[in-house]
Design a protein that fits this description.
single chain, Helix Hairpins, 2 domains, 4 strands, 76% helix
């Protein structure tokens, strides 16, 4: 591409400004603070999930242990009640009565031990249930916070997307009628050079790479006709001469 109408070259600057804004919006969309906050909350929820699983497992295990302890105590109580009923009936011999008394004493001692075990399990279960309740509350708080931040993110994304749509439409309108070959060259350079395909020549300085050109290069550019497309010798971007 060596020539294009001077007005088309100048119009590239408007297209470039819109493309730059689209690039900024793309970056803004990907780097919203709410996105980072959601990732942070997800990590906290994930970490807490491990503790929740361990705590729920402990509570479940202790409930089973308590059920067994209660069953053991109940079994001893029932056995003692049956022995006491037989002893109170007066229908057993002296030898059997003596055996029942001995068994009742043994059962009483056994019941005392089992009730201590039961009490210990109950105390541990209560402590774990308290810890689980706190973990559940913390998890609920994190989930609620994430939900709120997600709503904030969605609102911000909708705002950015609305501007992207507006700028995209403006860009399509701005590029209408510009020499097709010039647009093709501009788009290729923009894709190769980080989003900036055209820049103003300000005195000796290219506003694309911000470098000053050699006097001979500037002279060669100024010697070109207005329709000739100038390129920066340093960065290869299209140089738009506002005074051409």
């Amino acid at each position: 591409m060596s020539t294009a109408p001077p007005e088309d070259q100048r119009r590239l600057l408007e297209v470039q400004a819109l493309d730059t804004r689209l690039q900024q919006l793309t970056h803004k969309r990907a780097s919203l603070p709410s996105i980072a906050r959601i990732a942070e909350l997800d990590a906290q929820i994930s970490d807490l999930s491990t503790s929740l699983v361990a705590s729920r497992t402990a509570v479940s295990d202790l409930k089973r242990e308590l059920t067994k302890a209660e069953g053991d105590v109940e079994q001893v109580r029932n056995r003692a009640a049956r022995d006491q009923t037989r002893l109170d009936s007066g229908q057993v011999g002296a030898k059997d009565a003596q055996a029942l008394v001995g068994e009742l004493e043994s059962l009483a001692r056994r019941q005392e031990v089992l009730e201590e075990i039961e009490l210990g399990v109950m105390e541990r279960l209560e402590a774990h249930e308290d810890a689980l309740a706190k973990l559940d509350a913390a998890n609920d708080e994190l989930v609620a916070a994430k939900t709120a931040v997600e709503a904030e993110r969605d609102a911000q994304l909708a705002e950015v997307d609305a501007e992207v749509a507006s700028v995209t439409a403006a860009r399509a309108k701005a590029v209408e009628g510009i020499d097709a070959g010039l647009v093709t060259l501009y788009d290729r350079l923009r894709n190769q050079l980080g989003g900036l395909g055209a820049a103003v020549l300000n005195g000796r300085r290219c506003e694309g790479c911000r470098l000053e050109l050699n006097p001979s290069d500037v002279a060669a550019i100024k010697a070109k006709g207005p329709e000739q497309v100038a390129r920066c010798e340093e960065c290869s971007r299209i140089l738009v001469r506002l005074d051409a």
